[in-house]
Amino acid sequence: MSWIPGPLQVRGAAQALGRINRAGGPRRLRLVRVGRPQGRLIPSTEVIVEVETVSGEVVRFDPELPVPFFYAWGYRLARRLGLPVASTLDPEDLSFELPVPGWAWPGGR
């Protein structure tokens, strides 16, 4: 798993951005899921982001993003040792939603 995007990932992201732009721009962003860090030397994680557009269409992204090296190793070590905070917290349980102000999108509203 590499966080450097391949041609298909770049094409998919460009298509999703085009769909968002054609639908009038984003209204709301929602972080659906954050995966556990994977990779030994260059850790990364998969995230799932949903963008609700002005017209009501929901566009889903699933990029793979780099994770700071020490965060990933610290998380793995804490899980392996069974530390209470790391054992009870799971990054896959994280989700939140944010409204997007009209001035934040280049196309404006």
Poorly predicted tracts of residues: none
- H/I helix tally: 3
How far the N terminus sits from the C terminus, by CA atoms, comes to 38 Å
Strand content: 25-35%
Q: How many β strands by DSSP?
A: 5
**How would you sum up the major sheet?**
5 strands, antiparallel
Question: What class do helices, strands and sheet pairing give?
Answer: alpha+beta
How many domains? The number is 1
Order of helices and strands: HEEEEHHE
* Principal-axis shape: elongated
Mean pLDDT: 82
| Fraction of residues in helix | 25-40%
Rg, nearest Å: 17 Å
Task: Please describe the structure with a list of short key phrases separated by commas or semicolons.
five-stranded antiparallel beta sheet, 3 helices, alpha+beta, single chain
Describe this structure in words.
With 109 residues, the protein is α+β, with helices and mostly antiparallel strands. It has one domain. It is built from three helices and five strands. Strands 1, 2, 3, 4 and 5 form a five-stranded antiparallel beta sheet that branches. Strand 2 and strand 3 form a beta hairpin. The model has no long low-confidence stretch (mean pLDDT 82).
